[in-house]
Every structure is written in structure tokens, then in C-alpha cells.
Specification:
about 350 residues, Rossmann fold, four-stranded parallel β-sheet, ACCD_DCysDesulf, pyridoxal phosphate, Tryptophan synthase beta chain-like PALP domain-containing protein, TrpB-like_PALP_sf
Amino acid sequence: MIDPPSPPAPHPAMIQPRDSLATGLNLHSRIHPLRGFGDGTIYIKREDELSAGVTGTKLRKYLSILPAIEARGIDRVVMIGSARSNNLVGLGQLLVERGIAVEAFIKRPGDPTPTGNLLFLRMLLPPEAIHLVAPEEWGAVNARAAAHARRLESRGGRVLVVPEGGDCREALPGILTLAGDLLRNEHESGIRFDDIWIDSGTGISAIGLLLGLRLHQPHPRRLHITLIAGDREAFMERYRRFEHWCATLHGGPLPDPGLEPHFHRPASAASFGSVNACVLEETHRIAREAGILVDPVYSAKHLYTVRQQLRAHPPNRPQLVIYGGGPLGLCGFQSRLAPGLGSAPGNPETLKPSSERKP
């Protein structure tokens, strides 16, 4: 524990974006010790609690995407993503709620059965609003979506294309809020985290955290990034693009980086989208030990990787794990998770039927 620092003064680049964030959506999430991960010095930030319908940290992207859509008079949004995308389902809900027409270009799934996020997406959008793209043509999806948007605009109206993962300039003010909220957690708890762990799909939330902490410059830190998808080179290329946008917003060069990003591959099932027995077991284990329901594709892999890293390199300072997923990601995995209910980590006796337990 440390003496609570004074609340950090907002950097000038943080003030204007905050004025243009969507109202009525949550900005703040809590932290608490993560049970099952050592001696109580490992904490978790519950971004999953920001929203019941939007998966975790993704809500922060929409804090600024939605006001940008409204300010520009956009009446139709074309989204891009995989058939199992959390981003499509999250943003789709908020757009439909606001009466904005939505279409989606999605990669044709190998299994077209409507389960998980594909089911939710098909509930949100009519069949004619969902455009399937063959996997071998996915490299041209941005161009196809842009051409479709131009055709729609030629008939009247204004259209915005939101790339995969919400990878657009409009997301920047919203993703910067994660850093400010983390500093609020530190001030309220009196705990300073020198090591922070976050996962990365497209990497937008991790980039927002890097840039936000860079603007605030509280003290040097290490940011550990689990690369669920992509690689270091792709992440840094995207980071430099957002860095440029952030400098434009700031009106000049950004402060020198005050933290080191460390990249980690998933410790199991490293291929994106793959889920093996180890990841499923970790999903069960976190539920039983920590009381948290985590999705297998992102969060269980991330937490398993954190667990393995901390075992190999025991920390001597408090660590913070960002949980940016949510239990909605469990949908579609019921049939694979059910067989492990009787063998999930925990007290073996309590996992047996009552008739088989020892007295």
C-alpha cells in the first residue's frame, strides 16, 4: 500500500474529448483482488461491468464514436467484422437503439449455425443487412464496404464505415478514458500498479491505455499485452496511426513515452479463435476460484497467460489485470464447457453428486 496520491490533473488533450463523450454510458469500473492468483497482490479491473449488453472495454470506443455519428448527421453505419465479433454486436445494439440504420460485412463462418454472437447479430439485423464475404476475399473487405457506402450515399443520406474492431479515428477520445479511470482506481485504493496486463485483438483498447497513460505521465510503468490476435508489428503500426491522431488532437507533439510495452503470445491455444481443453479448464477455474465468468476466446487465454507469467516471474509489487471481456462471450461454448463441470478445479468432493460425497 502507498499513501494515496493527489488526483492527477487532466492533460489538455484529455479535456476536450471528455466534453464530447456520449452521455448515459458508464465511464468507471471497479478493481478488486483477483482470487486464485497468488497472495492478494494481483488485482483485476472489471471492465465487464460497464455494460450488460456490450462486451467490456469496447464500450469505451463507442463513447466517442456515437457522438461523432450524431454530430455528422450519419443515418446509416456499415460495420465490418467476423461472424463472432463482439464489436459488431455491441455497436449494433447502440446504433439500433438510436434509430440509426445498420449493415454489417462479415467473414463467412465455417459453421453458419446461429450461435453466440452470430445469433445476436442476426437478431439485431435483418438478413438483407448482413453481407457475407468469403474468407479468401476478406483482404478486400474494406474496399468493398467503402464502395457499398458510396452507392448508398449516391441515393441520398450519409454513411459511415466502421472498420473491424472499431479501428477508426472517431474511437480515440473514448479509448483514452481507460487510463483516467485506472488512475482514479489507484487514487481511491491507495495502490499503485507498476505492472498492468491487458489483452489485444485489434489492440484498440490497449493502444488507448498506452496513449492515455502517456498523456497523464503519472510514473513509469510496464504494460503487458497478450496478443490474442495479430503480432507486435501490426500492433505497433496501428499504435503509430493512433499516436498521430492523438498528437493532432493535442495540437502538438505528445510527451515522451513513460511506459514499456511487453508483448506476450497466449500461453495456450495461440492461434486466434482456437479454444482447447486447457483454455476451457481455465474458464472453469476462474469461475470457481474468482467468481468471474470469462469468455474462452479472449479473456480465459489472457488470464491463463498472466497466470503462467506470474508463476515464472513472481511479482514483488501489486499487479493489475484488465478484464475487458464479458460473459456474453461464453455463448456458443455451452456444449464444450458442460462436460467439464464435474472435473473443473475446486474441492473434488463438492464437484461430486451429493450421493457420492464422503461424509
